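Quick question, first post here. What does this chain look like in 3D?
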Amino acid sequence: MSGSVYGGDEVGAVCFDFGSHTVRAGFAGEDAPKANVPTHMLTGDEKTKYHVGTNAIMYPREKSEVVTPIKDGMIDNWDQYETMMDHLYTKCLSVESSEHPIMMSEVAWNKMEKRHKTCEIMLEKYNAPAFYLCKNAVLVAFASGRSTALVLDSGAAQTTAVPVHDGYVIQHGVVRSPLAGNFLAAQVREHLKDQSIEVVPTYKIASKDPVKEGQAPIWTLRKNIPGVSSTWHDYQVDQVIEDLIHHVLQVHDKPATEEELNMIPGSVFEFPNGYNHLFGAERFKVPEPLFDPLGTNLRILGGDMLAAQHVLSSSISMCDIDVRPGLWSNIVLAGGTTLLTGFSERLTTECHAKMTSSTKVKVVTGGNTTDRIFSAWVGASILASLGTFQELWISKQEYEEEGKLIVDKKCP
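> Answer (accepted):
Ran it through. Tokens below.
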């Protein structure tokens, strides 16, 4: 369809990338999303069913539960999904959905009925002039300037390897493992519990006094705190743990002994209540299972617990032998967990150890932190703004003529 049918050439598309941790939304052609909001939301009352957004979810409310529309990377609750979309359009983007084509990412294992439902909602309820659904691994590869790549995405819920060849996902080569951000958070909780360190979230603290490293914290409990739910309290604790993970944890460039780790200077982390703790060798031990899960306490997880390099190599080995060299030399990293200091270097070391010297292994990390976190969204932004892409949109007219099954034909 030409741009004149749906306004694709005249009006910029909006791009959405739903993750387990955050949702990215913004306008095609821009370098970064305009909004990056938590995927989680709070239940409300009859007047306001859900409270959505960064500020809303941080505000303590009586008995409000933390919920999410995303499960296993796919949309699981359509009511919550539509609430999120309403928030993004009205509060974040401030545009009419009927005036802009919609580019949306999806996981490689998205189910057919969920694809149909997404297409139906966006073109009927939101009355978009055009719609397109694209695999997020393809978008990540595209953002790095590649049509063929092995995308290793380690986010909150899982680490996935998705082979992309000539712009299409090799579906039988997709491999997943639960060793990712949520696993790291659970490992940190276990360690803090063993050390008898209580994580007091920010909402409980009225004031605190500075103390020296290792000394007991001196803080005052905030008064008149509402009777918050356990899910909201846990969410607030998770914010502290997430901060600790990104400021303290580090991946060693190779398997290391206790003695080697003890020689590396520690890192001090200040908890919200003012307590300062020195993290030594444990800041390397906690993320080590990402690359060596054997012998680790993994009772907190289910599923196939594959190390990152095994997720990657298993995926490539499932692909045609002629495609494999191109995948090994174009390993593209995405997702917040890959931002851990030393992650890409360790992955490169592990990959070289598995391969013969004649195999070229190249791990592509992206230019900066933003590139890695927003890479699927950036790929969508680039793709949706290309003049050559405009004929690929599912127009409203095509949808009305052929129905929701058109998404399977036009969005492979």
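The first helix runs from residue 3 to 6.
The longest strand covers residues 159-165.
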